[in-house]
Specification:
By secondary structure, this protein is an alpha+beta fold. Helix content is about 25%, strand content about 40%. The longest helix is centred in the last third of the chain and has 22 residues, at about 150-170. Belongs to the AHA1 family.
């Protein structure tokens, strides 16, 4: 496994790369299956409950995360581009239980929407995941908040990708 992250100010983009020792189709399926996402997506120790999963352009992945202490947080992906098994593009946001976009519970200046592009690149018997995320339709303050949170975003995704790697190890 290799990890690389960089933050490009000119594009306000976070890029995370990680190589998994699995075929591309298996890694792609882990991102595009309701049942598989429920096994690994989200912060470590949180329970994930998927209430809606419609993998198609403009389809929604709506989920609730619950902390060990009982705190609930809702989120959603709105799928924009699906090119199996090479690419997945979606817009992520915090939401309420009805799927309506809401402000992040931790910041009034967090961007309402983040555009995420995942590329699944085959390399011999491994797959490199390239994740790109950037605020969408954000204010200057929201861009600044996103930029200032780079290390926290990276830590969060590292933990989630660790869970993905463990999940993949368990099913192989």
């Amino acid at each position: 496994m290799t990890m690389k992250s960089e933050f490009q100010k000119d594009q306000t983009e976070l890029v995370i790369e990680r190589t998994f020792d699995v075929p591309r189709e298996l890694l792609y399926a882990a991102w595009t299956s309701r049942e598989k996402l429920e096994k690994w997506w989200g912060p470590k120790g949180y329970d994930l409950h998927v209430t809606q999963f419609d993998l198609r352009s403009d389809g929604i992945f709506l989920y609730k995360q619950q902390s060990p202490e009982g705190m609930e947080m809702w989120g959603k992906f709105e799928f924009k581009e699906i090119d199996a098994p090479r690419k997945l593009m979606y817009i992520s946001s915090f939401s309420n239980s009805a799927g309506e976009t809401v402000r992040a519970p931790f910041s009034s200046s967090w961007p309402l929407e983040i555009q995420n592009t995942l590329m699944f690149v085959e390399q011999d018997r491994t797959t490199k995941l390239i994740m790109r995320g950037t605020p969408l339709n954000a204010t200057a303050e929201e861009y600044q908040t996103f930029e200032a949170a780079k290390e926290q975003i990276e830590e969060g995704f590292n933990g989630t990708l660790d869970q993905l790697e463990s999940y993949l190890d368990d099913i192989l």
